[in-house]
Amino acid sequence: MSFTSLIYLFLFFPIAIAIHTISPKKVKNNVLLLLSLFFYSWGDPRYLILILFSVAITWFGVNRMYAIKNRREEAKFYMVCLIVLNVAILAFYKYYGFLIDNVNAIFRTSLSIIDLPLPFGISFYTFKIISYIADVYTRRTKPQKSFLDFALYVTIFPQIGAGPIVQYADMEKELVARKLSVDKFGFGVEKFIFGLGKKVLIANNMALIWAQVKGMPNLEMSSLTAWIGIVAFTLQIYFDFSGYSDMAIGVGYMLGFKWEENFNYPYISKSATEFWRRWHISLGNWFKRYIYFPLGGSKCSPAMQFRNIFVVWMVTGLWHGANWNFIIWGLYFGIIIYLEKTVLANVMSKLGSKIKTVYCLLIVVFGWVLFDFQSVTQILKFYSNLFVLGANGVVDSTAIYLLRTNWKIIVPAIIGSTPFALKLIDNVKHRFGRNGYFFVSIFYIVIIVLSVASLVGESYSPFLYFKF
Predict the structure, then answer these.
(1) Using CA atoms, how far apart are residues 459 and 468, in angstroms rounded to an integer?
(2) Do residues 86 and 94 make contact, with C-beta atoms less than 8 angstroms apart?
(3) Which of 46, 100, 146, 246 is deepest in the core (most CB within 10 A)?
(4) What is the signed CA dihedral for 348, 351, 357, 358, rounded to 10 degrees?
């Protein structure tokens, strides 16, 4: 069930919020768990058994591991087994076909592949489970005594589809006792509506532009057409994923939880390193805490630092998808970030702020080409179009048409990817007092009306990160 489906917006979401709000405090978690399991099973109830198996084996195993915490070797054995088991489940469903395809290509075999749909949210809830196992083992937190509360942590419906990946230590207190308030609820509503507008009004329209460009026969296009297309995808993936994150965080506030921001205007960054501190923040923090730092982080020799960055970014790429283009994309950023920390450090310190922002945007845009095209031939062809190396020139009629018909949505999207819009809303609230809140309320009502009208008239458009 997508956050932008009419069933979710007008049935599940309001009913879930109402039931949770009026439920007695003692049973709120149980009610929310049942709602979350219903939400999860909506698309494919078969995988409900899989997620409950992971939850059960992890809960029992971690409690046993903690009970023998003084026997370090035995406790470590439990920790390793639990992590390996959960990673193995993720790897089987996500990388089984990719592995067989590569075995067939390398050894010229003809092994058959069973078509296994990717379980909904498995990449996200597996990382939550792994962080829980590691944190209890390292004594950052204590195990959850209640099986039902732990199951709620893993399956809570706002996070299950595409994060944010909130670590158990950051939710522990609110699972036990959280307070609902008018202020929290109001902020959550604003956050949710803003995210809905990002997805429906901007991301979905950017997707149409990108689909038109990407679908051109043999990628025959002018340089300007290629740039319009990849800029559209750059905006699409940002508004799509940050829109989902805003909606998830907003629902969390309405349920009494306070989850940190998952995006912090990444397109105003001045380096690739800064970009990844601002983009998908919860995933970046996960990789730092559970892979990069345990490997030694940056407090080691240059060779080991390169190894650590290489491992993290190869895994980052592979996490995003079972295809070589994702691995190449991850290593692309890994190499750039390593160079920024070493060779380019002195050079970049002397550059002006605007130049560094342009540099970062180009790095990111070129990276999105690797991210979205799965064929090396397509990647090289599209790059040649960007740099006017093809036979289609700088400008063609398609580029003129795309600009003429879409500039009214592209320009606001570019502005919306900066802090300007939210600052303007805050200024209106503070400058005009009650009238300011009235104007902002009208603004949000307009977003809802336009979003619903758009959803009624268009085909289903799932969030991009659901497939990861």
Answers:
(1) 21
(2) no
(3) 246
(4) -100
Residue 96 identity (one-letter amino acid): Y
Question: In this structure, is the dihedral angle defined by the CA atoms of residues 96, 101, 106 and 112, taken in order, positive or negative?
Answer: positive
Residues 364 and 351: their CA atoms lie apart, in Å, by 18
Instruction: State the first-to-last Cα distance of the chain, in angstroms, to the nearest integer.
Output: 16
The contacts of residue 222 (CB under 8 Å, 6+ apart) are 385, 392, 393, 394, 395, 396, 398, 399
* Planar angle of CA 61, 158, 420, nearest 5 degrees: 130
What is the helix, strand, coil percentage profile of the chain, to 5?
75, 0, 25
pLDDT, one tens digit per residue, over 254-283 is 999 999 999 999 999 999 999 999 999 999
Could you tell me if 290 and 134 are in contact, meaning their C-beta atoms sit under 8 angstroms apart? yes
The 10 Å Cβ neighbour count of residue 132 is 27
pLDDT at 22: 94
Active site residues: 320
Output the pTM of the full model.
Answer: 0.93
* Mean pLDDT across the chain: 91
| Residue extents of the structural domains in the chain | 6-177, 184-416
CB 422 within 8 A of CB 198: no
| Cα dihedral sign, 104-107-109-114 | negative
